[in-house]
Amino acid sequence: MTTTTQKKSIWDRLEAVPREALYALLLIFFIIPMVNPIGFPVPISDEVRRWYNTIDALPSGSAIMIDFGYSGGGEPELGPMAVAVYHHIFSRKAGLKAICMSTSIEGPLLWDKAMAEVNPSRYGANYGKDYIHIGYISGGEIAMASIGKDLRAAVSTDYKGVSLDTFSIMQGIANAGSFQLLICYTTGGDQSEGWVRQWYTPYKTPYLCSVLAMMVPTMLPYQKAGQIISVTSGAQAGQMEVLVKVPARGIKSADVITMTHLLVVGFIVLGNIAYYAKKFSGGSK
Amino acid sequence: MEFAELLQIWFAALFTVWIYSIAFRDNLFFKFAEHTFVGAAAGHSIVYGVDNVRRLGWTPLVQGQLIYLVAFILGIMLYTRYHSQHFWISRFPVSVMAGVGLGLSLRATVTSEFIAQILSTAQMKVLGVSPWCAGLYNLLFIVITVTVVYYFVFTFPRIHAGRLNWISRIARYGMMAAFGYSFANTILSRFQMIFGRLDFLMNSWLPLSGAVIALPIVLVLLAYAMIPASRRPWPKQLAATPSDD
C-alpha cells in the first residue's frame, strides 16, 4: 500500500484554520476595545433621530404604550435601547405617561432590570403616576387586539396584582384610542408585525419599533410604507444615548462592535482571496 | 451588596462561561448549564402561566364575570388530549384558538401586508427626486420587487428559460443581496449578545472579591473537561443511560 502526501499550499491551510483559533481571535478583538476604549465616532442615523423627534414632539400628558416584548437572550441588544428611551421619556418636562405591558414571558423581569438602570426617581417620576407595568399578557396578537379594544376588560391589575383603579396614571386609559404612541421592543417577528396588524391598521396609532438587528430587514417594508415611524435595531442604542446625553452600555458596545466587524471583514476578504487563488491555480473545482 | 444578589451574579457568570465554552468544544460543564437553563426556563414559564391564569382569568371570574367560565372550561378540555379515549374533546378548544387567532390576523393582513406595501412601492418616484441617488435607489427597489415577484411565478415554467432568463437572474441577485444584508445583521445581533455577557463578566463579576481567582480555576476545569474521555484519567466515561442503547 502506498501513501502519497501532497504538500498543502498556504491557501489550503488558510481555509482549514480551526474554528477554535478564529473564536479565540474574535474574543481578543472583543476584549481589547473593552479594556482600552478607542472612541470611534457614533454618527446619528435618520431612524434614531426620527425616533427621538417623535417622542420629543408628543404633547404634555400623552400616553405611550410600551411593549417590553424581548427575551433574556435579546437583553444585551434591546435593553440599552429601552433604557435610553425611558431616560428620554422621563426627562421630558411636560410629563408623559409610560404604560408598559409584555408580550414576552420574561418581559416583567427585564423591565424591572431596566428600571433599576434608569432610576426614575432621579427625574422625580413615580410608579403608578408617571409609569406602570400592567404585566405579561399571553396570547400574542390576541392580547394586542383585546388591549386595543378594551384594556380594562383584558387586564385589571398591574404586574404585581394591584388593581389598576388604584393608579392615577390609568385614569382615562380605556383602549388604543387613549394612546398617542406605541413603542415595541421585541425579539419576535410575531410581535413587531402583530402591532402593525392590531394597532396601527385599525387605530392608526403612531408606532416606533426596536428589534434585533437580524429582524430589521423584515421590518423595513413597514417603515417604507409609513406604517412604522422608525425601525431601529438595539445595536443603535449608542446613538440614542448620545441624543439623550446618558452614555451607558450602548456607547460602550459601539467600539467593540466596530472592531469585531472589521475582523469579520478581514476574514471574508482572506477567505475570498484563498478561494480565488486556489481557483486560478487549478486547485478548486 | 445583598447575599442573594451576590449569588445571582456568581451563578450568572459561571453559567455564561460554561455556555460559551461550546464554541471551543463540547464538555460536561456546557451540558450542565444547558440542561439547567432548559429546566429553569420551563419552571419560569409554568410560574408565569399559573400567574396569568390567576390574574387574567380567576380574579375576574370570582369578581362576577361569569364569561371567564367558558375560557376555563375550554382550557380544561385541552388536557383531555392526554386521555387515550377522550382525546378528541381537545380538538374543540384547539379549533377555537385557531379560529380566533386566524380571524384576528386576517382582519388586517390584507390591508397592512398587501395593499399598504403595494401602494408604497407604486408611489415611489424615480425622476425629480432629490438627492439623485434616492431616485436610483427607488428604481433599484422597483426593479428588484418586480423581478422577484416574477421569479416566484411557477405556473408557467417557460418564462424562466431562454431569452427571459435574465429577469430571474436579476431577481436572484436581488434576493442574494437581501440574504446577505440579513446575515450581516444576524452577526451584529450575535456580537451584541456576546458583548453583553462579556461586559457583565468584566464589570459585574470580576470586580467581586474572589472572582479573579475563580476565573482561571474555571477555565482550567473547562479545558480539562474538553479533553476526550478516553484520554483523561477521570472521569473516563459517563454511565450510559437506557436511551443511549
Question: Summed up, what is this model?
Answer:
The complex is a heterodimer of chains A (285) and B (245). Chain A contains 11 helices and 6 strands. Chain A has 285 residues and is of the alpha/beta class.
Estimate the mean pLDDT confidence of chain A. 92
The CATH class of the largest domain in chain A? Alpha Beta
What is the subunit arrangement here? heterodimer
Provide the helix percentage of chain A.
40-55%
The helix/strand series of chain B, from N terminus to C terminus, equals HHHHHHH
Largest sheet of chain B: none
Helix/strand/pairing class of chain B, anyone?
Answer: mainly alpha
Question: How would you classify the helix and strand content of chain A by structural class?
Answer: alpha/beta
Give the amount of beta strand of chain A, in percent: 5-15%
Q: What is the gyration radius of chain A calculated from CA atoms?
A: 24 Å
* Shape verdict of chain B: extended
Could you characterize what this model shows?
- The complex is a heterodimer of chains A (285) and B (245).
- Chain A has two domains: 17-34 and 253-280, no CATH class; 46-251, Rossmann fold (3-Layer(aba) Sandwich), CATH 3.40.50.
- In chain A, helix 4 runs parallel beside helix 10 (237-244) and helix 6 (141-149) packs parallel to helix 8.
- Chain A contains eleven helices and six strands.
- The mean pLDDT of chain A is 92.
- In chain A, helix 4 links the parallel strand 1 and strand 2.
- Chain A is elongated.
- Chain A has 285 residues and is an alpha/beta fold.
- Chain A has a six-stranded parallel beta sheet with strand order 3-2-1-4-5-6, with helices on both faces.
- The two termini of chain B are 49 Å apart.
- Chain B is extended and about 70 Å long.
- By secondary structure, chain B is an all-alpha fold.
Chart the SSEs and their pairings.
The complex is a heterodimer of chains A (285) and B (245).
Chain A: H1 10-15, H2 19-35, H3 46-56, E1 63-69, H4 75-91, E2 97-102, H5 107-118, E3 131-136, H6 141-149, H7 151-154, E4 181-186, H8 189-203, E5 207-211, H9 216-224, E6 230-233, H10 237-244, H11 249-280
Chain B: H1 3-20, H2 28-62, H3 68-78, H4 91-122, H5 132-151, H6 165-205, H7 211-225
Helix pairs in contact in B: 1-2, 1-6, 1-7, 2-3, 3-4, 5-6
